[in-house]
Amino acid sequence: EFNGCLRCSPKLFILLERNDIRQIGICLPSCPLGYFGLRNTDMNKCIKCKIENCESCFSRNFCTKCKEGLYLHKGRCYVTCPEGYSAANGTMECSSPAQCEMSEWGPWGPCSKKRKLCGFKKGNEDRTRRILQAPSGDVSLCPATTEVRRCTVQKNQCPEGKKKKKEEQGKQDNANGNRNQKDTKDAKSGTKKRKSKQRGAAVPATSASPAQ
């Protein structure tokens, strides 16, 4: 059953309110909260928003203002902003991380491992960029400023390792040299002893002269 207005003047919107089994037509200069105005050559109508907790909408499925205490994000209403978003400039509208203004990436740094640049084959290299502007000044909403990737280099021994190895080799060479000198000295000493012994054995024994 239908009661009230059936048609409104061209400048007004007709709002149909349901009362039990009856619909009541009301002519209004603008649509109330929770409705949006749809102008038509035949008749201007107030159509209810289908978005839950929406106070005003642009179309049935796109909210422009949520009820008090709720946040607006992409035409819908939320208790809190979705992950990665926050209320912009104290409003109840969620802003996107895309609003962060970032600098260009810097060059990749040297390949390193545990802060060393040598003595390994596989390590990591990184590059950085800066946050030029963050929404509401909150840098936590912006993308990462550091990027890391694996890298491979030709294995190169560290200079201190080379020096240590050279010192150890030098000590070994000195030890070998000293050992060789000792062996040579011992050999010469043995030769002299043998020659002296041989000379002593070759001298004939002399007999004492008889007494007269």
From TrEMBL:
The keyword Glycoprotein applies. It comes from the Eukaryota. Belongs to the R-spondin family. GO terms for cellular component: extracellular region. Pfam families: Furin-like_2, TSP1_spondin. Residues 1-94 form the R-spondin Fu-CRD domain. This is R-spondin 1. Residues 100-155 form the Spondin-like TSP1 domain. The lineage of its organism: Eukaryota, Metazoa, Chordata, Craniata, Vertebrata. Signal peptide: none annotated. Residues 180-189 have a biased composition (Basic and acidic residues). GO terms for biological process: Wnt signaling pathway. GO terms for molecular function: heparin binding. InterPro entries: Furin_repeat (IPR006212), Growth_fac_rcpt_cys_sf (IPR009030), R-spondin (IPR051514), Rspo_Fu-CRD_dom (IPR043601), TSP1_rpt (IPR000884), TSP1_rpt_sf (IPR036383), TSP1_spondin_dom (IPR044004). Residues 157-212 are annotated as: Disordered. It comes from Athene cunicularia (Burrowing owl). Gene3D superfamilies: Hormone Receptor, Insulin-like Growth Factor Receptor 1, Chain A, domain 2, Thrombospondin type-1 (TSP1) repeat. Keywords: Disulfide bond, Glycoprotein, Heparin-binding, Secreted, Sensory transduction, Signal, Wnt signaling pathway.
